[in-house]
Amino acid sequence: MADEISFSPDDKYNAFLATCKRAPHGNGKLAGVAVAVKDNITTKGIETTCASKILKGYVPPYDAHVIGLLKAEGAAVVGKTNMDEFGMGTTTENSAFGPTLNPCDTRRVPGGSSGGSAAAVAAGMVRMALGSDTGGSIRCPASFCGIVGLKPSYGRVSRYGLIAYSNSLEQIGPLGKTVTDVSALMGVIAGHDRHDSTSLDKPYNHTPNADIKGLKIGIPQEYFGKGVDPNVADVVKKGIGRLEELGATTVPCSIPSMEYALAAYYVTCTCEASSNLARFDGVRYGPAPDTKKSWHDAYQEVRSAAFGTEVRRRIMLGTFALSSGYYGKYYAKAQVARENIKADFNRIFADVDVIAGPTMPTIAFRLKEKSDPLSMYLADILTVPANLAGIPAISVPCGKSEGMPVGLQIMGRMFEDERVVDVAYAYEQAVN
Amino acid sequence: MADAEDQVIVGLEVHCQLDTKSKLFCGCSTDYRSDGPNTHVCPICLGLPGAMPSLNKRAIEYAMKVAKALNCEVLNESEFSRKNYFYPDLDKAYQITQYDKPLAEGGYLEIESDEGGERKIRLTRIHVEEDPGRLVHMGNVERGKYSLVDYNRAGIPLIEIVSEPDMRSPREARKFLNKLRATLEYLSVFDSEKEGSLRVDANISIKGHERVEVKNITSYKGVEKALLFEVTRQKNLIRRGQRIERETRHYLEARGVTQSARSKEQEHDYRYFPEPDLRPLRVRSWLDGIVLPELPDARRERFMAEYGCSLNHARTLTGELKLANFFEKVVASDKPGLSPLASTWIADTLIGELNYRDMSLDNVDPAAITGLVLLLKAGTITDKSGVEVLRVILDQLLKGEMAETPDAIVKRLNLAKTAGDTGAITAAIEEAINENPKALEDYRAGKGGALNFLVGQVMKKTRGKADPAELNRMLAEALKKRGA
Amino acid sequence: MVTEKDVQHIAGLADVGIDDKELGTFTHQFNAILEYFDILDRVEGNGQATRDLYNILREDEIEPSLPQEDVLRNAPAQEDGFIKAPRVM
After folding, report:
1. Residue A45's Cα: distance from chain center in Å?
2. Does the beta-carbon distance from C86 to B26 stay under 8 Å?
């Protein structure tokens, strides 16, 4: 028989879009653990909105695969967390239901797009949370809020039930205060799912190990160059110094394809998003279209009223990039760029075990600091390469700059999620 | 063959539902036709946010069978793409289909050309895709129009077979379609009797003029009708010196006409890109493991060799899987003895009588036809009585009754030939001559028609039971006696 | 360089409906972003995506569909088990 935990947090950071006052749970590895779930992960019987007005009131009739796994291990799904609408943002300001505030400094953003999940963990409202990471959406808020967040290797966690923003880039992943919690949650959600044709039979059964003697760490020059706040770079360099003290060696390296990584990322994600978000027309779910109008007119009315500006901007960018005559210039070229980025990583990983650098080029922005879309996009430069290549990457807190947390990012070879967890764990154990 | 000045040129895009148990990308049953709307849907085929497709292996196997049977080249690697457009029946606002990497390319299908003889119609490609849902149009102009959507059909697997513009008449287009249907049925991948299981778009032009696409043809007969309408329309335009617009037209089945689609609908930009939730296919090697059944052409040849069928009969009988099977059941007990009569009686008489009644062959027991053929072969009944027996059987079936056996019908209606009962025939002959003195006169005057007239009169009197050869002999004798 | 007319066309294709006030802003932003995307012109390589997975298929087995009330529950308008949608004729 299932037990319940009660969950009535004082949500002063607007981390949650929905909470379950009494959340049932069972037995298992996560028995009775309160887990918050990003609102783009489908939960049966619990409103799932992607922080968009277009899904207001939508109550899914099915659970995402990861939700089934959580429940099977006894976790209590206590609420759905705020995010940038459909995952499109780096601040969680693009929520139709108001921004989430950073618990470390409420004048600042928590990062995004999994800002609600990160804030809920950072504020101690839950022990762990699920987020999703398309171009940094787990690692960025982990870094800004001073917690741990893992973007798994592409294919290790089922995306079935993750409301798609950019299918070829994104993964569901864990956030927690400690590497141990993140690793434990990863152990529950990883593994093959026959409903996700891109998922792989690579379960994660790992206990973090802090021994990193002899580990070779690549330090890409691009992660410490132009655009990266020198104070942040210094904090991260010190963090990497600690890893050397633990017996690791560092090797300078370079990722030349970084120069077009961000463009490749934004072309890919806007193209895929333009198609993924076309289904929101109000017919099967969402706000009612005027059925007396012709369908194009009715859809335009619903979609212009219920999608936020950033969502419509990305839909249009992707629509343009896929439109007749432009496919070769944009989408096809972006896929070539991805191959080049993978090749760069493969070359480096032939030499080193992991790559380390800052997660974000800066500390958390002030609210409304980033108003111009392109400057906002540029903030993703250090996180998107891992998504483009599909490799695992973790962000672990490594000190502060201007009193705000800074994240150390560890990227690993494809499917070596365990190793990036170990490196983060080694760091965490050394500083605590 | 050099094309004439006003040669008609036709190419077809044929969509056929593959007869799998579950849908193309989810486990919903494909057996939806007798159930209420939106009862065969799940998060995947309803396009609920977060749901992902998983590809049905059997659909690919079926498509591969078709590719092999139609002599296509299966590509080393194929993949699915998204075709993006908005329409209320399209749950995800994109259709998962194949675009630049289809399952197979090339190939051909042989049809009987209008000049007689076989002709290869080349195929461009075969690809696999999902069916959209179904729309019902509601409301009226005053109170507002709207649509009702049933997603039961959404996600049913389709193959699209695209031909080259190799057909030269609406009739050839129909023949292509019939041959294709037969082939798919022989492969057991398609059920032509399921409503809406086949849909055709046709490209048609008159040589030297713009091409018109006719969409929305949903029946076998519709193809010929729609194209005949287009040929007339286009030729009339040319005759009047008008230009043929390159456009898309819809076929309105009920009215038998085509109608121009509004220009807005023609502005398509489908923004294809590879479906990121599916992985590519590398299935060419499966071809080696596919053992094709006997296909229509091979069966036709065998029917000619084994049963001595004429080319036309063999073509008709093998043109439908069910008919071919039916024929073989009818003659199974005595192939050489029954085949000559059975092929004629099935290919000509039975089909005609079934079509007249709009009946399906399914209702007919092959044993009944075997019985009928046996009676004819033994000379127990005349051909005329044979037709009567057949009609009685079909009419009984049509009324939902149990059909009598041919023997019982012959007995009940007293249809056995009056062989030996020369008295009755002699009496009928005498009567006929006496009642028609003018015919006797004509006969004496050497008018050939008079004899046939008298034969007809005697037949009427004997209700068709008299053997025609015997009757002729006896009538000639009777006339001779009267000095003619 | 995209013009306001281009942006309007794209908005139509995407059915997102933009108003006159937004048109200028969007056009301006698109030009800045597309200019940034031009860096992809410098990408070299032959572009075939490397995929390590092929032939991911499931068996042709029937699984339960949703109950009709679950299908209709989220639809804003329905009629006789059908989902109501805008007119197409």
Report:
1. 24
2. no
